[in-house]
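Checked the freezer inventory, then went back to the computational side. Two predictions to log before the end of the day. The first one is the construct we discussed on Monday; recording sequence and tokens without edits.
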Amino acid sequence: MPLSHEDRRKLAEIERELTRVDPDLARTIAAGRFPMLRPILFGAAFLAGAAVLVGGLVTTHAFPITGVVIAVAGVAAMTGAAGGLLREVRTMLPVFSSATPPWTLPGTPPTNPPTTPPAPGGSRRP
């Protein structure tokens, strides 16, 4: 049974409110059934790039220029896959996606990062 106009309006209002209140949850829900598919594909692309890199290095013995071109293509594929995987992980983990530093406790205002005390016997001035 299709939704009435009033029900669709209420649903759209609830979706807007959810996006405003908790954008991470809204993004997770909007991702659909396979939220881990993209990271798995990026991981597979990284492994394929590593295989191409090894193939290029092996090919270098017989055909030096061709082998180098293949190896560079493998490194490029690995770099792109690693960047995509890092971006996906940052969106999945709230610690990386928030603007608040990870050392800030929830409900407290942001402060400067923790500092390490000077080493004993550090810089002494006479």
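The second is the one RB wanted added to the comparison set:
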Amino acid sequence: MKRLFVLVGILAATGPVGAAELTYTPVNPSFGGNALNSSHLISTANAQRTATATPRPSPNRVTPTT
């Protein structure tokens, strides 16, 4: 009898459950995404490129010694 009350309590507490199909929509307009994202994506890429671009000496370059 106690198990029955526990089972009924669990079923009453969960309530109805619904589910929907997951759909994927790409962000990049080149792959079918929204065309309005293109300016935002290119500005973000340009900002990241300039933020990480640091001049590095070439490993093959010989520095003169005095």
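For RB: The chain is about 40% helix and 0% strand. The mean pLDDT is 79. Let me know if you want it refolded.
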